[in-house]
């Protein structure tokens, strides 16, 4: 039996942050094992810690709740913890460096800090730390990832400032930073929160960082990036607009989610780059989650919408990371990122094909897999003829179109990578660690599709009693989950059939299309702001770096040659004659080494500031 008192004292972000430091100093296998064990600890805390608020205190004179456990944070913690274990195993087997994994674990720690935060002040701190550390994960790879990382930092830095303004405005209205269950204050705080959080969850027009960034870094880094920022941010959006908030913005948030599901799926379908395709599908699947959050926030009795949003968020953690892992193995083995240059790989890489298949069947909501359960909840919540209301009629059809686009995209990806033609290359399959990680996540996707009661039990707004799972909805008061009813299976069959027929018709013309994202045309200012901000940042860094290095070198020389330093100063005084002397070091140049990359510098500064703030919090 695990002592609950001990679990309440174990702060999940601190466990993972300590493991990140161990990764840097321990032998590689021991460091990675420490990272995996720390995330196993997070998983245990999420499962066994009793509900309530812990680690309360004061920070800069304000009451704060650094660690808040409720049904929602437990569900997300379980998903993030389990994924973290699999991601570390995958990174180890994929040859990721200790430095990359140390930065990634710091990123994971900040994400967990945001998810378990019990007040807006802690949230803002963890939100900004998440932006910094995720940028470092991107930068670590070098090359094109550096420029993409600057654009990424610009987006998330701007979004973070807007969230900070929202929190400040909320404090003015509410007089406290601590969560009270009603979400962000209405009016200006709510408007700012939607805009700032919309950057991280990929609202249309604020989403271009997704396909721009995630295809650039090391493929193991993409696995971490594909989940922690966006899924944590979607959960924070729920904290701002929880069930029963009755926010007027809820209906607009819901329809933004519906549009995201269509937009993301459409542009995923047009991609050649495999990771870009998956990145657009991050936006598309977030659309379903955002739609559920919006529906839940708009009306009081919409528990099925909130349950669907949180369940789909949990499931998305599993199948989205699995898909990035499978595609990463293909890139790792073939060196190719263009799906049209591959084909027939199922014979060469059967284990990777199985991993991809499990992820694809889950994200496309095929019966028997977890995506079918959570996406079905959201369809039911939006359907006016089921549990929805007439205001959600158009939203329901947007979600339908998004589902067909998702099926088309993954039929396309699987067909061209694994089944189209014969492979003209001979490559080995996934490494053992990669296989364990993929099949572990794939097994979880299958488990929660077959044993759907386990997923329903995790959803906080679903009420279990006597083997039944009930919830409140607007029309008749109480409903029950029946995911494998004939009507649900019929809907899934129609969606799949429409997608298969459509793919057969559009496959050839689709392969000739290469259309860019219109957001990059409509918002060219974003490109130029990002470019000149990047250049300004790098030039400022160069100037400061040169000045600092020059100062230290001069001090180093003065320390070795104090007499010559005095003579040099005396020569500047008019009328003073000074004899020539030989340097005590024989005139040899300084051997002091002061160079460090900008990523290393930012990481060190972040670590120091984090430690200082944690000490202040304690």
TrEMBL record:
The way this protein sits in the membrane is described as: Multi-pass membrane protein
- Provide the GO MF annotations for this entry: oxidoreductase activity
Recorded hits in InterPro entries, A to Z, give: ComplexI-like_HydComp (IPR052175), ND/Mrp_TM (IPR001750)
Keywords assigned by UniProt? Answer: Cell membrane, Membrane, Oxidoreductase, Plasmid, Transmembrane, Transmembrane helix
- List residues of the NADH:quinone oxidoreductase/Mrp antiporter transmembrane domain: 117-381
Localization per Swiss-Prot or TrEMBL: Cell membrane
What GO cellular component term, any one, is given? Answer: plasma membrane
The transmembrane residues are 72-93, 100-118, 124-141, 153-172, 184-206, 218-238, 250-270, 282-300, 312-332, 353-374, 394-415, 436-454, 488-506, 598-617
* Protein name (record): NADH/Ubiquinone/plastoquinone (Complex I)
Which species is this UniProt entry from?
Haloterrigena turkmenica (strain ATCC 51198 / DSM 5511 / JCM 9101 / NCIMB 13204 / VKM B-1734 / 4k)
């Amino acid at each position: 039996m695990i002592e609950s008192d001990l679990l309440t004292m174990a702060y999940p972000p601190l466990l993972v942050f300590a493991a990140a430091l161990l990764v840097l100093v321990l032998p590689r296998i021991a460091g990675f094992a420490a990272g995996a064990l720390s995330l196993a600890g997070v998983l245990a805390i999420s499962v066994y810690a009793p509900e309530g608020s812990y680690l309360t205190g004061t920070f800069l004179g304000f009451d704060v709740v650094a660690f808040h456990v409720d049904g929602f944070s437990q569900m997300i913690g379980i998903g993030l913890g389990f994924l973290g274990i699999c991601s570390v195993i995958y990174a180890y087997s994929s040859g990721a460096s200790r430095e990359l994994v140390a930065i990634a674990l710091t990123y994971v720690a900040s994400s967990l800090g945001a998810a378990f935060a019990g007040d807006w002040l802690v949230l803002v701190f963890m939100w900004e730390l998440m932006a910094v550390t995720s940028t470092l994960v991107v930068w670590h790879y070098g090359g094109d990832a550096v420029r993409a990382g600057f654009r990424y930092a610009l987006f998330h830095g701007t979004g973070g400032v807007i969230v900070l303004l929202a929190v400040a405005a909320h404090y003015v209205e509410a007089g406290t930073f601590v969560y009270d269950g009603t979400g962000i204050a209405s009016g200006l705080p709510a408007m700012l929160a939607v805009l700032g959080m919309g950057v991280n969850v990929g609202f249309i027009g604020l989403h271009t960082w997704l396909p721009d960034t995630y295809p650039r870094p090391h493929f193991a880094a993409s696995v971490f990036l594909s989940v922690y920022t966006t899924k944590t941010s979607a959960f924070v959006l729920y904290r701002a607009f929880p069930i029963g908030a009755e926010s007027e913005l809820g209906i607009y948030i819901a329809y933004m989610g519906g549009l995201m599901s269509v937009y993301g799926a459409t542009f995923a379908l047009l991609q050649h780059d495999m990771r870009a395709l998956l990145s657009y599908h991050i936006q598309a699947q977030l659309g379903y989650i955002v739609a559920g959050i919006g529906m839940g926030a708009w009306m009081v009795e919409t528990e099925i919408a909130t349950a669907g949003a949180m369940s789909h968020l949990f499931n998305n953690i599993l199948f989205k990371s699995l898909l990035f892992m499978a595609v990463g193995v293909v890139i790792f083995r073939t060196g190719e990122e263009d799906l049209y240059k591959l084909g027939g790989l199922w014979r060469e890489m059967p284990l990777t094909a199985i991993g991809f298949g499990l992820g694809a069947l889950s994200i496309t909501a095929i019966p028997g897999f977890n995506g079918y359960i959570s996406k079905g909840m959201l369809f039911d919540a939006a359907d006016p003829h089921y549990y929805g209301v007439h205001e959600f009629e158009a939203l329901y059809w947007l979600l339908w179109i998004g589902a067909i686009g998702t099926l088309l995209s993954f039929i396309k990806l699987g067909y061209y990578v694994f089944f189209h033609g014969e492979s003209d290359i001979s490559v080995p399959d996934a490494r053992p660690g990669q296989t364990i990680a993929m099949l572990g996540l794939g097994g979880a996707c299958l488990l929660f599709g077959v044993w759907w009661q386990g997923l329903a039990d995790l959803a906080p707004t679903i009420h279990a009693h006597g083997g039944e799972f009930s919830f409140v909805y607007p029309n008749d008061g109480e409903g029950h989950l029946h995911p494998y009813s004939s009507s649900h299976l019929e809907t899934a069959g129609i969606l799949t059939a429409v997608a298969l027929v459509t793919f057969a018709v559009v496959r050839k013309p689709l392969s000739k299309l290469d259309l860019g994202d219109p957001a990059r045309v409509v918002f060219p200012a974003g490109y130029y702001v990002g470019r000149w901000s990047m250049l300004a940042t790098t030039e400022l860094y160069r100037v400061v770096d040169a000045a600092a290095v020059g100062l230290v070198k001069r001090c180093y020389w003065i320390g070795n040659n104090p007499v010559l330093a005095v003579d040099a100063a005396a020569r500047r005084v008019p009328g003073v004659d000074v004899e020539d002397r030989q340097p005590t070091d024989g005139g040899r140049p300084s051997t002091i080494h002061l160079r460090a990359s900008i990523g290393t510098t930012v990481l060190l500064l972040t670590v120091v500031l984090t430690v200082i703030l944690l000490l202040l919090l304690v």
